Structure formats: structure tokens, C-alpha cells
TrEMBL record:
InterPro entries: NAD(P)-bd_dom_sf, RCK_C_sf, RCK_N, Trk_Ktr_HKT_K-transport. Residues 1-116 form the RCK N-terminal domain. Pfam families: TrkA_N (PF02254). PANTHER family: KTR SYSTEM POTASSIUM UPTAKE PROTEIN C (PTHR43833:SF7), POTASSIUM CHANNEL PROTEIN 2-RELATED-RELATED (PTHR43833). This is Ktr system potassium uptake protein A.
């Protein structure tokens, strides 16, 4: 079988090496030439490229691959953008690496059903949640933009996204809406989140739901307050 692995950090490197040892054709991709050089004699093929560059990624044998694994872990934004790019290019099976609940939610909204969660919550995300009680979860896509999980502000309950017009009002995009439910896992009580799919102008914002927003943090804070 043929696998393409985007990201050759410790996780991606171990996965690529092991798949090759098991007899699979493995293509490892990373934008760090040093990582690529270290693996060139240990796996089938190595490629140095930007995994968020559409023209570059399009040159990979995506249609021939049984699975494309996004193993980027050090940059959640790059991981998400690479996954979205693979989805846009029609890759038949994508496996995403998830390092936060919010990243998992966004992948579910993109109909990425298979993923791995090797890391725990980061200090930065926890600090942002503690700093602002309205924020449920968050991560940076870049120095400028973030994806934020926040409760539906009271003034928008019952309105559609078209009626609220958040993009024009605050320069913020709603990616999806989450429904929360209580349950238990391994004997412990917890809150489960279910994404409603990609948000549309007709999506209605309801009480006790959570919005997943994309934009600059200052604009998102204006919307929240």
C-alpha cells in the first residue's frame, strides 16, 4: 500500500519509518530539508515542500495513495490548512493528527472522520480560556488569526447567521456550530461536543450552543462583548 505523510517531526518520522519497515511504499514530506535528508535512506521517498502550498501538494501522487496522514504537530494552523487543502484536492482518505479538542471539532466539520490525538492541552490555550470566560477553546492559525470556540452571545440567540451578518459586522467567519451534551466516559462525567457541519447563512444560533469562529482575536472579542 502507498502512504503519504505530511510532517516529519518525531511522530511523522516514526510512522514513516515503521510503515516502510512493514513493506509499504511511504512518501515523507516536510518543509525542513534537514528532516528530509535524515530520512531519505530510511523510507521509500522523501520530498521537501511546503505542505500548505496547493501547487506543491498537487504534485504529489495523491490519487494513488491509500491514505494521506497529516502528522504536523508543532503548528496547529499549518496542520489544519494542509488538511483542508487535501480535502479540496479530493483525497479519498485523510487521517489527521489532532492536538486539541478544537482542532478535532474543525476536522469533524470538514468530515475528517479518522484522526489521532497524541498530545494534551497546551498551556497557551488554557491561559486564553482562563483569561476570557466566554472562550471555550482556541488555537492560533497564524500570528494574526485564531480559531475560537465561544458560547453564542445572548443577543444572537434565535437568529440565523445571515441575520446576524457577523462577517460584515465584525470581520469574523463562523466555521460551524457545536451542540453540547452531558455524558460519561470511563466512568467520568464529561461534556461531549457535536459539530453541525459547515455553517451556512441559514444556520440558526441557539441557546447553550457554541460557535467556532475564525478571525483576529480583537475582532472576535468585540463580537463577544
Amino acid at each position: 500500500m502507498k502512504y503519504i505523510i505530511l510532517g516529519l517531526g518525531s511522530f511523522g518520522k516514526s510512522l514513516a519509518t515503521r510503515l516502510t519497515e512493514l513493506g509499504h511504499e511511504t512518501i515523507g514530506v516536510d518543509n525542513n530539508m534537514q528532516k528530509v535528508e535524515q530520512l531519505k535512506d530510511r523510507i521509500t521517498h522523501t520530498v521537501c515542500m511546503d505542505c500548505t502550498d496547493k501547487s506543491a501538494v498537487s504534485s504529489l501522487p495523491l490519487r494513488d495513495a491509500d491514505s494521506v496522514i497529516v502528522a504536523i504537530g508543532e503548528n496547529e494552523g499549518s496542520s489544519l490548512l494542509a488538511t483542508a487543502l487535501l480535502k479540496q484536492l479530493g483525497v479519498k482518505k485523510i487521517i489527521g493528527r489532532v492536538v486539541s479538542d478544537l482542532q478535532k471539532t474543525v476536522l469533524e466539520a470538514m468530515d475528517i472522520e479518522e484522526y489521532i490525538l497524541p498530545e494534551e492541552e497546551s498551556a497557551e490555550r488554557l491561559a486564553m480560556r482562563l483569561d476570557n470566560s466566554g472562550i471555550v477553546d482556541s488555537f492560533k492559525v497564524s500570528d494574526k488569526y485564531s480559531i475560537i470556540e465561544t458560547k453564542v452571545p445572548a443577543r444572537y440567540i434565535g437568529k440565523t447567521l445571515a441575520e446576524a451578518d457577523l462577517t460584515n459586522q465584525y470581520n469574523v467567519i463562523v466555521l460551524t456550530v457545536l451542540t453540547l451534551s452531558k455524558g460519561s466516559e470511563n466512568g467520568l462525567a464529561r461534556i461531549f461536543k457535536r459539530a453541525s457541519g459547515i455553517a451556512t447563512p441559514n444556520t440558526v444560533m441557539r441557546e447553550n450552543e457554541v460557535l467556532v469562529l475564525f478571525g483576529e482575536l480583537k475582532d472576535i472579542e468585540k463580537l463577544m462583548h
